[in-house]
Amino acid sequence: MDLAKNIVKYRKRNNMSQEQLAEALNISRQSISKWETGENLPSIDNLISLSGLLDISLDELITGEPYLHFPFNYGKPKNHWPQIILVLVMVIFTASLTTLFGRTPLIKVFDIIFGILISYTFVTRMSFYDYKRYCNYWTLQKNGITYAVDSEDDISFGKDFLMPLMGLLNIRSTKFIPYKRIKSMEIYLKLYGYNPSKELTLMGGAGISASSMVEQFELRITLLDGKKVNLNLNQYYWKDSKERKMLGTIVTFLKRKHFEFIDKQGIADLLRDGDGSLTQELYEQRDGN
Question: Where does this protein have coiled-coil stretches (predicted)?
Answer without folding.
Answer: none
